[in-house]
Each structure stands twice: as C-alpha cells, then as structure tokens.
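Hey, quick one: can you model this chain's 3D structure?
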Amino acid sequence: MDSLIPFTTSGSLVDCVDRKMLVVLRDGRKLHGVLRSYDQFANLVLEDTVERIYHGKAFAEHWHGLFLIRGENVVLLGEIDLDQEDDIPLQQVDYSVLDPYHRRDIANKKGREDFKSKVLYEQKGFCKEGGEGDGY
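Sure thing. Here's the predicted structure for all 136 residues.
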C-alpha cells in the first residue's frame, strides 16, 4: 500500500541536483540557477543565479551568483529545458531599462490586492489577518 503513495518529500529533489532550475518565490521573484544542494526542509542552494523580470514582450536578468533560498519561500520549482530555453519569443533588454516598468507592475498588483482585501473585509466579513505571501 505504501508503494502507491507518491514520493513528495524533499528527497524527491535528488534528481534535480546539478540541473538548471526555475524557482518562483512567495514574493513573486523568479530565479534561474543550477541547483547544487538542498536539505530536509527544502532549503535550496542555487549557483550562477539570475533574477529574471518580465514586462510585455521583454525580459531582463540581474546576476546574483550563489543564492540560498529558505524552503518556506518556494512556491514553484521546475527544471528548465535547455533545448527550448533559447527559443523564447521575448527580447532581452538591460535590467535598468525594464526595472521601472517592473516596479510599477508590482505597485499596481499590490494596489489591486489591497482593494480586494478591503472589499472582502467590509462586504464579506473576511478578516484582515495575514501578510504578504500568506496566500500560499
């Protein structure tokens, strides 16, 4: 019976070591890097890490190098297909060009979330507890 239960612990990451991975964090950041290590709490160590931001049909990368990620902040972890990575239909631009647009998008999203929280509190009786990232 136990053999029918999928292997969903951090031990299932063993096949991902030394592979290029995409990690999406609770705060929305998207990191690309080579997974070098992990532990029982799904804390991750990424090497050659870049943070990628998007706006419209453009993207930019900011170099971080070695990156330690606390497991509770990981929303999604996926392997990057190296054969298809270069075929993305987006134009790479300098980070300084895209950063103001990205920051504006983040501020707009926060404004929408604050408005939604206010409506849910005032009209539907939801509580105001929780903070950023508690939705995961």
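One thing worth noting: The helical segments are 82-85, 95-124.
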